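User: What would this chain look like folded?
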Amino acid sequence: MLESYDKELAEGHNKKQYRSKGSRQTSIKTVYGEVIYSRRVYRTETEDGQVAHVFLLDQAMQMDKVGLISTNLSEKIALTITESPYRVTADIINETCGQNISAQGVWLHMQDEHHKKM
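Assistant: Here's the prediction, encoded as structure tokens.
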């Protein structure tokens, strides 16, 4: 589904503003496991004339740039952390969701979520 949406974006994007540079593989962690998919990367220029590489799919889906984690998994982490330390939360997520996340990873994710809300 993500690759299909990426294809739609590729067909409708501003070709003068965004130049396709091929596809890159990535993954998103979900409560059901890791989903691996490819999405296109585009070369563009920022307002100050600097070269930048962007993923239109990530922008359209409002995905995090570091450590792509689904909303459901993020909510599960947030709920678990309210009752357990970071290490216990990591163990629970690893056991119940089959994800490989460390206590530091849980902490970093929660910090990132906190900064987004500010």
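The mean pLDDT is 86. If you want, I can go into more detail on any region.
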